[in-house]
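For reference, the entry.
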Amino acid sequence: MSHGGEGAGRSVGSVWCIVAEAVLVLAVGLGFGCLANALSPRGLNWTRNYFPLPAVTPQPVTAGDAPSGVPAADAESEAIARVTARGYAAWTFERAVEAFADPARLTGRMVWVDARAEIPYRRGHIPGARQFDPYRPEQNLLEVVAACLQAEKVIVYCSGGRCEDAELAASLLEQAGVPRERLVIYVGGFEEWEARGQPVEPRPTSTGSTPAPTP
């Protein structure tokens, strides 16, 4: 019995020695890697944003008498200018409504992508839109990209107005393989869509406390 216990002890000790050696090798390798990165002129800058959106100078916006949630003409023009400056097609409310009525939306040839976070998406979104948070792309990037690659047109939107999340999401989708020519940005976004009485799912109840799915 004593020999068996000693053998088991030696086996456990050997395992721990192997684990310790592996951790040591990993730590040494990581240290050398960081040192080489710091010395190399082509090393990675840990604080750098490697996927920046092109900077666009904002123009003054006149709100005018536009209803809440609906961008004024100047605000819409600013958003269109910003989106087109980044190389994407920009759609206004009228074009978005026209596309929503297209049967291609129901067959997968047209995909809508909601670039807002999960909580606002669950509270309400354009029917059939797929949620894709550009700040947490790992959550559903593969699923959304797979759908976009099968589509002829991909309409991306966020809250609208000065929100640039739709452009960031479009940029990530493009980097993942979705052709740029398929991507468009609905500049009015969800706030304009809802404010103008368009379909929303799930639509909040009259109390505003619990979302209820549309029939």
